[in-house]
Amino acid sequence: MNDRSGDTRSKRDGTIDFGYQQVPVQEKARRVGQVFRSVADRYDLMNDLMSAGLHRLWKHQAINRVQPRRGHRILDLAAGTGDLTLALSKRVGPEGQVVMTDINEAMLARGRDRMIDAGRVDNVRYALCNAEALPFPDQYFDRVTIAFGLRNVTHKDTALREMYRVLKPGGWATVLEFSRVYIPPLRPVYDLYSFRVLPLMGRLVANDAESYRYLAESIRMHPPQEQLAAMMAEAGFEDCDYLNLSAGVVAIHRGFRY
Known about the structure:
This protein is an alpha/beta fold. It has helices at residues 8-13, 25-39, 43-51, 54-66, 83-92, 105-117, 156-166, 187-206, 209-221, 225-234, and strands at 15-18, 21-24, 73-77, 97-102, 124-128, 141-147, 167-178, 238-245, 250-256. The chain is globular, with a radius of gyration of 17 Å. The model is unreliable at 1-9 (pLDDT under 50). Keywords: Menaquinone biosynthesis, Methyltransferase, S-adenosyl-L-methionine, Transferase, Ubiquinone biosynthesis. S-adenosyl-L-methionine binds at residues 81, 102, 130-131.
């Protein structure tokens, strides 16, 4: 159940992982889209419940690793309802700009509404786009961020190359994502929570157990820490590093463009 072959399988037989299922490559983006359209209305509430609020601390740590500066132009991929976008827009100031993107129109619409409600209208822009084919020029952004979105991308290697392409020299990409628990005795407890509690919570709160079962499975199929760092290096990034949080439940990866 913990096969982490990732993108390589799609090159062999035309299928790719969707959780523990194998689906045609061209089907994954559509199925992921269905998941997030289903959970969009309860997305923020479920994030708080699932992580007991820890996701806010994880994102705060990620922002610290981004090191945004006034005047920076930052691309926030798979931005969802905009937690990172909101924090980044405050840091870059009126001289800077954050481009908030998502492949899912329901999530992007909720994020845009949230930015408007928060008064973040002058330095935030929006783009409905696929992380594998970014509609931006080469070397355009000072930073690129993606939080809890990379594991849902069909071809992670392609997305990482696109992230590298749009970065200015001297900039870096920051990837916040669920990863692999590195303390063996904690793994059974984490598995029990992931595969029993999360789907139950999804059914009771969001009326959608299957989407949260996919969430747990997609985490197990995502490349672990060292493998993702190696994939970033293969995409062109240098000095790739990562920081484990909460015993490796999540990790923050960085890769630099010089």
